[in-house]
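Re: export button greyed out
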Amino acid sequence: MNSLFTPLSWSDSGLILTGVWNTVIISVVAIVVGTILGLIVGFARSESNKVVNAVFGSLLDVLRSVPLIIQLILFSTFMGAAGSPLAPFVAGSIVLSLYTMAFMAEVFRGGFESVSPSMQTAARSLGMTKWQTIYHIRLPIGLRAVFPSWLGVSLSVIKDSALVSVIGYMELLRTSEQLISRTQQPLEILIGVGIFYFIISYPLSYYGRYVERKMAI
Amino acid sequence: MDYEFHWNVVFQNMPQLLNGAFVTLHVSVLAMLLGIVIAILLAIAKMNNTKFFSQVATVWVEIARNTPALFQIYMAYFGLGAFGIHLSPYVAVLSALVFINAGYLTETFRGGFQSIPSTQYSASKSLGMTSIQSYRYIILPQMLRRIYHPMTNQFVWSILMSSLGILVGMSELSGTTQRLQSLSFRTLEFFIVAAVMYFIITKLVLFASSLLARRLFKGEI
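Workaround output, generated via the alternate export path:
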């Protein structure tokens, strides 16, 4: 049978694996960079005065109130118009990291503010310096409290990384879309993709809920 | 940077953009309402002792929470084609959003319901209230207070996620923006305006929600 479409075959596995790898790598970059930036911004927000906080807060608010897909398109066309077009991976990593940062900053700020002031006073009265108090008291206690929320944000970043396909990054979902247009077998391919995301996401979300339950008691 | 901004073409097309914004609101409100109805049923099913019902609900919730929204939309738009079901972009995006909203809200509702101690129900029964009365006056008002903020967040999330309609050619705000920019090549201008419009929509929704909360809960939340 001669047809324009060729069915899915084993030779496609290389393409699919590249898609999987690209999804994993951009998620990891966004989570790592977003966590580091979020930690810094979150800490700055819990320390700084009201005015600085309001400015910071409204900037983060913009990142959280505009759809990721619009941010991606805007940033990559802006860089193109500015004369220095970026590769999809670079543009995608930058936008996704900043987007992650906006959520992480709030998570970490909540963590730092959950450490009671009396505990800090106690640490100071034991002769710890300001930085020792931060390093030995506020960081470990604050971070432990927000671990489940951190995991939740990270999971949503893995899922949101699918949107980077809109600026031409070949992650898993875009790879599958191309395979669909060639093979015309949407259901098999999409179910495979769904299973992949589920396998990554479900154990982590289960673990997050387990930790949350354990901490609640 | 030698890019010249031309805003005129954007303002000429403002009616179409506003129309797109209306479709965005429309689809997210509908997705939220249908999602709430299904989530109530799923939450009841999940707390049911019959294993079959609670398992169906669990599978729904876990799939909705652990796969990307874009995957759900592709599934509705391309995947269902294998069964001979061809949905329009609007229906595909709507059904994906309903599916996800229902999944997340089920957990919200279940958590909210279980956070009310069952002794309150017994107490209201002992005061002579009927079952319906004790739900209406004791359980549900307290529950609503606890699930109000998560529900608002879910609604904002649906507004933002309806922007994925751009990828299946739906004519909501993003899709309209995409179509208009491809006619005029003023990509940057159109998407800046779209971003501002999304920001305004989310802020208005949050503002309206806090006004409503003040009326509903009389400041004690």
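Helices of chain A lie at 13-47, 50-65, 68-81, 88-114, 117-125, 130-160, 172-183, 186-216. The button fix ships in the next patch.
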